Amino acid sequence: MKLLKIILGIVFFLTLLFFVFLTPVDITPYFETDYYRTSRMQLDSLLLQKRVRSGPLHAGFSKISFTPRFISSGNPQKADEFNRLPLAGYGNRKGKLTDKIHDSLFVKCVALKVDDATVFLVALDLLIVPQEIRFAVAQRLGEIAGIIREQLYFSATHSHSSLGGWGKGFVAESFAGPFDARVRQWITAQTVAAILSAKKDLAPACWVYGTFRAPDFIRNRLIGEKGRVNDRFDFLYFEKEKNHSAVIGFYGAHATVLSDDNMQCSADYPGYWQRAIEGKIPGSTALFFAGSVGSHRPAGQGKAFARAKNIGLALADSVIRRLDDFSAKTELNFKALTLSLTLPPSQIRLLEDWRLRPVWGQKLMSIPPTVSLQTLQLNDFILATTPCDFSGELALQIHDALQQKGVHSTISSFNGDYVGYIIPGKYYHLPEYEPRLMGWFGPYMGDYTTELLLRLMGGY
Questions:
Q1: Alpha-carbon distance 267 to 329, whole Å?
Q2: Is 60 helix (H, G, I), strand (E, B) or coil?
Q3: What are residue 233's DSSP bridge partners?
Q4: Per-residue pLDDT tens digits for 142-187
Q5: Are 295 and 258 contacting, i.e. CB atoms less than 8 angstroms apart?
Q6: For the chain, what is the mean pLDDT?
Q7: Lowest mean pLDDT among 4-8, 265-269, 318-322, 325-329
Q8: Residue among 390, 374, 409, 56 at smallest CA distance from 209
Q9: In angstroms, rounded to a whole number, what is the distance separating the alpha carbons of residues 325 and 334?
Q10: Backbone CA torsion sign across 14, 16, 21, 27
Q11: Strand residue runs (E) in 176-330
Q12: What is the pLDDT of residues 418-449, one digit of tens each?
């Protein structure tokens, strides 16, 4: 009888825990929800307010290192000197520390000004652009230069072997190692400096965009050959006077050529691409924006650093070959939009059809109530930035729709917020990392985000 009471007590306790912490997955169609209605109202208002600027282009470029310097003993004498630091990217490194630098890390910026509007395209050799760093950068720029969040277009190279230690909390420290406040302060300071330097460098410029397919270096990692692959490499080229130019590249292969066994700090294949561009185009600055990396892994020949080099150099050669074929423009129709996207209640799943109650999910993942979707239109080219690992398959849907309207689009990830993976709803029930562990908002988040991006970009 005593054993029976113990068993019944355990069952009661587990049942109580189940209903306290779990609730069924919500399958309400997104277009019937309050969060959708709120975002649509904000979007409609935004589209009415914003106008297209037209006129000659001014551009400015900058490049600033945030490579850490390591000391063997004693107290740090400079802000960028550290004993040892973790690398960000792989949870199974378990916060392991490194003091080895394979290649330097940079924050780079291209400032663009048309009429009275200025924006800053900022790329960091990091896993993501952490929200705390984005917030601190925007706050500091607002204080000293009057630059606001809506002017800042962030992305990261998404290297899984770059500097860690910048994030506080369960998720950030699982992927980026133990938090070190000095890292966050150091990256913030260098990013602010890069943006201000690009602003100071503004001068008359011409520009052009290009695109080509690069199928040899990318695969669908979620369902292999059954899935679509966004194998386009898009690029923007800006030039001022001779030997003063910038190239921004967008590509969707995950920067995971270097595995979790690697413990040397590196920008992976995007670093090789940037160095190759800068080495072959005198006076150039090369920025790499991680594209629609969701479900897309790298391919190519070789292993580790040799493979990263092969990919980076091949992609750089393809860009350089195409630059001679273009006629650059000085006049620009320019439109910059930032939508505050209201997020659905979280749906962090522990079982197939059961999720953590949103109150617990929000706390576990430190999910904000809103994030940003941004678009930047330059004539018939539109860049969209997203707060996630955005699916290459969804990017193809958007590209195909806009192409029908004579517009070329590219989508980048990691714009200064982070809400996991946004992938097609058809993959929601696959027992894979992206939909199960990193799909934080239910089966319709992909459809919801895709619709609003299309509306924001004029393709719906």
A1: 32
A2: strand
A3: 212
A4: 999 999 999 999 999 999 999 999 999 888 999 999 999 999 999 9
A5: no
A6: 92
A7: 4-8
A8: 409
A9: 24
A10: positive
A11: 203-204, 206-213, 218-220, 232-239, 245-251, 284-290, 296-298
A12: 999 999 999 999 999 999 999 999 999 999 99
Q: % helix / strand / coil in the chain, to the nearest 5?
A: 35, 30, 35
Would you state the structure tokens that stand for residue 276, as one six-digit string? 């190759």
The residues, ordered by sequence, that sit 6+ positions from 252 with a Cβ below 8 Å of its Cβ are: 218, 230, 231, 232, 290, 291, 292, 293, 296, 392, 395
Element (H, E) at 240: none
Tell me the residue type at 78: K
Q: How many residues does the chain have?
A: 460
What's the token pair of residue 378? 């330059």
For 274-326, how does the pLDDT look when each residue is reduced to its tens digit (9 = 90+)?
Answer: 999 999 999 999 999 999 999 999 999 999 999 999 999 999 999 999 998 77
The 3-state secondary structure of 96-154, one letter per residue: CEECCECCCCEEEEEEEEECCEEEEEEEECCCCCCHHHHHHHHHHHHHHHCCCHHHEEE
Residue 82 φ/ψ region, left for φ over 0, alpha for ψ in the -120 to 50 degree band, beta for the rest: beta
pTM score of the predicted model: 0.94
Domain limits, the chain: 1-460
Q: How far apart are CA 435 and CA 413, in angstroms?
A: 17
